[in-house]
Design a protein that fits this description.
By secondary structure, this protein is of the alpha+beta class. It has helices at residues 4-26, 36-48, 108-125, 148-155, 200-213, 260-270, 292-299, 340-354, and strands spanning 53-56, 59-63, 73-79, 97-99, 102-104, 132-137, 158-163, 172-175, 177-186, 190-191, 227-235, 241-242, 245-254, 274-277, 285-286, 305-307, 320-322, 337-339.
């Protein structure tokens, strides 16, 4: 890489390339599990840049020009899928609109900015480094089985990953996990006018009240306590029948002190309701503060933090950190946007981190 004015021109050109490609992706709907057209665009772009491209489903990746299979790789990853647009959009979510520094469109912030910045940095460094893999993955928003999980075995030995989720370009060195638990409180049906039956709603209320007041013992500065939230509840067939079942769902956000299996077992031992976890696979993650990548971030004046939101880090069994342009608070909102200056800043900082 060059320095000084030459590097400035390189970063400016890469930013222009990133913004133009992001506009094309915004105009190409890529809601989770329907990302084929977006994957085609990324694949063609990489091929046009001279990369040898690999693809599995709607996951697309490329390696350094002289990739060394015997060396632990640095994975540069972001996702191409988006959530469905919410009802509050004033602008067309699939029409890229520039207003000053801001580029509006669905997926611009989550995760288009990070995806484009990492792609440009990969292209700038792929001849210089022999250990880079760029991966544009799918189904992140739904933690789908056909997303990054099915690709990781194809990538070989990964030493560390940078995940380009929006973090304001501050490194998230820990991330909460997710477990969804479906519960059924049991009762006995009866006539509501008489003192008979056992109301399953009241049985569920006992468990829900315990969840509201209970705090898990272990917590950390980065991720705080385990968070359990009842998000769905359903019971009853009509007004005059005592319900014999009450179904409710718990959203569990785990910290790094507990595995999802441990939390589930603990809940089972303290609650009366029947319980079933949808999955145990999305555990909390953390990277050591002494890892060279984290230390490099610290040298550049960045501030590590713990993230409450889930990403594909939960499926990575190797060190990773979340670092990308944009703000998490904009994700999944109406009139989502990314700033061009944020993409430029991300490219500059990624280059500084990766050119040691």
């Amino acid at each position: 890489m060059e320095t000084g004015n030459t590097r400035t021109l390189i970063v400016e050109n890469a930013t222009d390339q990133a913004v133009e490609l992001l506009k094309k992706l915004i105009a190409t709907p890529s809601v989770s599990r329907d990302e084929e057209a977006a994957a085609d665009i990324i694949e063609q772009y990489l091929q046009n840049a001279g990369c040898t491209v690999e693809r599995k489903g709607n996951n697309v990746w490329a390696r350094s020009a002289r990739f060394n299979n015997d060396k632990p790789a640095v994975l540069l990853n972001a996702h191409i899928d988006t959530v469905k647009p919410v009802a509050g959009w004033v602008r067309d979510p699939f029409k890229p609109i520039m207003e000053g520094d801001q580029l509006y469109g669905l997926g611009s912030n989550d995760c288009g900015g990070g995806l484009m910045a990492l792609l440009q940095v990969f292209l700038l460094l792929r001849a210089e480094r022999d250990d880079l893999i760029f991966l544009a993955s799918c189904e992140e928003e739904v933690s789908g089985k056909n997303g990054i999980e099915c690709v990781l075995p194809e990538l070989g030995n990964i030493g560390v990953a940078i995940v380009g989720e929006p973090t304001g370009m501050q490194p998230a060195i820990a991330e909460k996990g997710l477990m969804v638990v479906d519960c059924v409180a049991k009762g006995r049906s009866g006539h509501a006018a008489r003192n008979e039956g056992l109301n399953a709603i009241y049985e569920a209320m006992d468990d829900i009240q315990w969840l509201r007041s209970h705090q898990f013992e272990k917590q950390t500065e980065l991720l705080g306590p385990v968070k359990t939230t009842v998000t769905i509840i359903n019971a009853g067939t009509q007004h005059n029948v005592i319900p014999d079942e009450c179904h409710f769902t718990i959203d569990v956000r785990s910290n790094e002190c507990y595995s999802n299996e441990e939390i589930f077992s603990y809940l089972q031992s303290h609650m009366k309701s029947e319980m079933k976890a949808r999955s145990f696979r999305l555990n909390s993650s953390r990277i050591d503060t002494e890892h060279p990548l984290v230390r490099r971030c610290l040298e550049l004046g960045m501030t590590p933090f713990g993230s409450p939101t889930l990403s594909d880090q939960a499926l990575m069994r190797f060190p990773s950190l979340k670092l990308g342009p944009g703000q998490s608070s904009r994700s999944h909102t109406a009139d989502e946007f990314i700033c061009v200056s944020e993409i430029k800043d991300a490219i500059e900082k990624y280059l500084k981190i990766l050119t040691l």
